């Protein structure tokens, strides 16, 4: 397996200073077992967690960023500010931003492009709703989300992008995609890359699955050949996040 597995923990809008201090002690136990690991606390807790995690195997990343240069954008975080704070990776286009905050495919793409220009790595989140799945629109929706980014990037940009496939119906619901459902989508995404970008990118790009991943269901998902890791929400706030990293690493080593 040539792709390095990668697990992210998305804390979303959760955490207190006390929780971050305690959870850092848990996260520090994550060993380098061949899996890249990042966590995305709120912007408010980012520098605290960075200092607590210094020297560990876990990178502290951002949940979102704005595409404009620093300026009069109340409540937003320009990419330059992330870079200045030592952040190296940001999520972009999480479904909660797309659906709840009304971020369009074009806006998500623009943010990702700006992040790449600034030298940041991007975890680009895509995924369909239940209604879209039931209407047989899974590929159409995911491809359109990717296409918006493809149109404004070049092939070389994709080496700094991880795709996170997170079906909306599975996020925070406890309804995890079956390994077959997830593998089918990941395989189609790789085919899309082969057709629209290049065979090299299709082979090399890492595609995470996200949506109700936990320590119990991650082994089977890990054994799918096109699943390169996970973007974990709720379980990343618990000690079982360590188990997810370990199970993914152990499973991929055997493949
Ligand atoms: P859950 O793991 O809580 O379903 O959240 C997934 C997610 O949205 C990660 O970005």
Automatic annotation (TrEMBL):
Q: Which InterPro entries match?
A: Aldolase_TIM, TIM_sf, TrioseP_Isoase_bac/euk, Triosephosphate_isomerase, Triosephosphate_isomerase_AS
Q: Which domain of life is it from?
A: Eukaryota
Which residues, by range, are in coiled-coil regions?
none
Task: Look up the record and name the pathway of this protein.
Answer: Carbohydrate biosynthesis; gluconeogenesis; Carbohydrate degradation; glycolysis; D-glyceraldehyde 3-phosphate from glycerone phosphate: step 1/1
Q: How does it assemble?
A: Homodimer.
Full protein name: Triosephosphate isomerase
* Entry-linked SUPFAM superfamilies: Triosephosphate isomerase (TIM)
Please list the reactions this protein catalyses: D-glyceraldehyde 3-phosphate = dihydroxyacetone phosphate
Is Isomerase there in the keyword field? yes
